[in-house]
Specification:
Helix content: 40-55%
Structural class: alpha+beta
Bound molecules: zinc ion
Order of helices and strands: HHEEEEEEH
Number of domains: 2
Number of helices: 3
């Protein structure tokens, strides 16, 4: 027997063995695939049955109720979380500036109702910005305590009453920005 015919017989034998193995294996594989698919399909059918006709309410309605309840719970959680995260500076509503005790409230992140009180007797101060309307006078606003013999408690130079309260608002904002308010 020549070497060439030996090689061709060997190759034919290997080829038939490999094709035999493939032919044996393919039906087995096909069996696995078929049984997996039928198992998956039965799962889908079971889910569908559970969704459409296992309860007094249809399953999809239960699913809808569950989703709505979940959204509600998430909203409640976010609302509670949002409230507890109120900025720290909102508790800063009083400070001593220009010699008077100033108080204000927060409307959102805006300062409102800012006014001053006497640091000695806590009386509401009255303002006098008549200097601003007199020619040749320094622009200033005095804050006076009627309860302490009409003494001038605070004096803010630069403008009238609106200018003075604006200046105080700017000072409050500055102390919030720099974190200086936390020292009080
Ligand atoms: Zn006073």
């Amino acid at each position: 027997m020549s070497e060439n015919s030996f090689i061709s017989i060997r190759n034919a034998t290997i080829a038939s063995v490999i094709s035999g193995v493939i032919l044996l294996t393919v039906p087995v594989l096909r069996g696995y695939v078929v049984s997996f698919l039928s198992w998956a399909w039965s799962g889908v059918v079971w889910c569908w049955d559970a969704l459409v006709d296992s309860y007094s309410l249809p399953g999809w309605a239960w699913l809808l109720i569950f989703i709505l309840a979940l959204i509600g719970l998430i909203n409640i959680y976010l609302a509670i979380k949002g409230e507890s995260e109120e900025p720290e500076f909102k508790s800063y509503v009083e400070d001593l500036m220009h010699g008077a005790n100033w108080r204000w409230s927060w409307t959102g992140n805006q300062i409102s109702n800012v006014w001053c009180f006497c640091p000695r007797c806590d009386a509401t101060l009255v303002y006098d910005d008549s200097f601003c309307r007199t020619f040749g006078q320094i622009n200033k606003t005095d804050f006076i305590c009627e309860n302490c013999n009409c003494t001038v408690v605070a004096s803010i130079s630069g403008g009238d009453k609106d200018y003075a309260t604006g200046a105080v608002k700017r000072e409050i904002s500055r102390r919030v920005r720099t974190g200086e308010y936390k020292k009080h």
